[in-house]
Amino acid sequence: xxxxxxxxxxxxxxxxxxxxxxxxxxxxxLRYFGSKISIDPSHLVKIFQHQRHIGNASxxxxxxxCGFNASEAEYFANLVRFNKAKTTHDSxxxxxxxxxxxxxxxxxxxxxQYEYYTKWYHSAILTFLDFYPFxxxxxxxxxxxxxxxxxxxxxxxxxxxxxxGLIKKRAENSDGKKGSWELTHKIITTGQRSLAVRSFQESTxxxxxxxxxxxxxxxxxxxTVTITVAExxxxxxxxxxxxxxxxxxxxxxxxxxxxxxxxxxxQLFPLTQ
Length: 273
Prior knowledge:
Blueprint: H1 10-24, H2 30-37, H3 41-48, H4 57-66, H5 70-84, H6 88-100, H7 104-118, H8 120-128, H9 138-144, H10 151-163, E1 167-169, E2 181-183, H11 193-214, H12 234-254
Antiparallel strand pairs: 1-2
Helix pairs in contact: 2-3, 5-6, 7-11, 8-10, 9-10
């Protein structure tokens, strides 16, 4: 079966481990597995189904039973803490620790992919470069954003986008001046997309709040409405939101002469149980 370092949920690993052992030995039962790691069989089933978590006392028992080496043991312990984390701060902390023991190549790639989503201005700069002729004037680039960022952050952002293969330099102009940067239109992915995107969403939601003071009403469209809806119709509401988002994306895709970057947040969430 796959290495523990391929997993982003320890419960999936435990389930796959049990299945592989069961296929190899018909006598390997839930009761036997549970006895080895001090977990009741009925509780083990709920863990497989993502309904429960293991206790911290079971971590060392599982490490011993599965025969993890030092690096795998460290990854597994942080994976459990990552899956049990209750705050974004803790999720980031343990995910970073997981990356650090995955190996140099995997760490370098996933670290950069993950980093892309942790700051709102990376995607803003990437989108901006689709029409902005950036020729290494980092101060000017930083000042173009709203809110503006530092020249240092702009420089590091360009370095990150380049490392990810999302942008590349054009050849020098005929007059000998340095060429500008252009998009490669490569799609970015990350191993733990949900965590990274959650961080991105948090930062853009905060920007939306700040926009109430930062931008004139004619430059923004922030409205709220509290509605009643039957649970059975919630899928229909989501379909309408999805369709509106796709229509706006198509409009943006067909735009031949863009001159601004906007962030579109669509938020729908319950206020009652």
